[in-house]
Amino acid sequence: MKGLAVRWIFLTLAILAAAYLLDGIEVAGFFSALFAAGVLGVLNVFFRPILILLTLPINILTLGLFTFVINAVLLMMASGVIRGFHVRGFWWAVLGSLVISLVNWLLNSLVSDEGRFDGTIDLRRRDDGGWE
User: Fold this and answer.
1) Are 75 and 101 in contact, with CB atoms under 8 Å apart?
2) What are the boundaries of each domain within the chain?
3) Membrane-crossing residues (predicted)?
4) Which residues pair with 85 in a beta bridge?
5) pTM above 0.70?
């Protein structure tokens, strides 16, 4: 449960980063971004798998790049529901989904499934003197 809360905060920070970096995405404040992250998380859980399955041939032909279009549509759906969170158009949503995906991936790569920081690297010396 702790990991879920940490990932929700990370998605909120990713939305705030997208709003800071892109002129076409506006967020009224932290709580608007928090609610947008919650709605986006629910949309990703329930609708994203269905949309990916329905668009599987297009997704295969574009080598997975159509997934960004699906993410953009979900981002626009979330902006339609949350007051204080606005995406100006489809192409801003595509750019926003790229920024949000990148920032969210970077932040989530630092945390384990239990919500703990995984900043350590375990290195072992092999018999031939190299490291693994």
Assistant:
1) no
2) 2-108
3) 29-47, 54-77, 89-107
4) 27
5) yes
